[in-house]
Amino acid sequence: MAMAEVLVHMKITFLMLCLVVFLFLSGWPQTGHSQHDSHPEVVIPLRITGTDKGIQTPEWLSYRLHIADQRLTIHMKVKKIFITRHFSIFTYTDQGALIKDQPFVPKDCNYHGYVEGDPESLVALSICFGGLQGMLQTNDTLYEIKPKTHSAKFEHLVYKIDSEDTQFSSMRCRLTEEIAQQFQYQELDNSILMQSHYEGWWTHRWYTRLALVVDNARHVYLGSNISNTQNEVIELVNVMNIIYAPLDMVVVLPGIEIWNEQNPIEYAKMPAYLSRFCKWKTDIFNNRIPHDVIHLLVRHGFGSYLGLAFLGAVCDNRYNCAVNSFREKSVIQFVSTIAHELGHNYGMQHDTPGCRCASTKCIMFPSKTSSSKFSNCSYDYYWTTTIKKTCLRELPSKDSYFTRKRCGNGIIEEEEECDCGSLESCTEDPCCSTNCTLVPGAACAFGNCCRDCQLVPSGQVCRKQSNECDLPEWCNGTWHECPEDVHVQDGSPCLGMGYCYEKRCNIRDEQCRQIFGKKAKSANETCYREINTRGDRFGNCGNNSRSYLRCDIDDILCGRIQCENVMEIPPLRNHSNVHITQAHGLNCWGVDYHFGTVTPDIGDVKDGTECGEERVCINRRCVPVPAWDKECLPDMCNMNGICNSKHHCHCGNDFAPPYCQQKGYGGSIDSGPPPERKKEVPKVKKEDNSYFLLSIPLFVLLCCLLLFCCLMNRKSSEKEEQNAQTSPNQPAQKAETTPSQPQKKVPNKK
Question: What SUPFAM superfamilies does the record tag this protein with (predicted)?
Answer without folding.
Answer: Blood coagulation inhibitor (disintegrin), Metalloproteases ('zincins'), catalytic domain
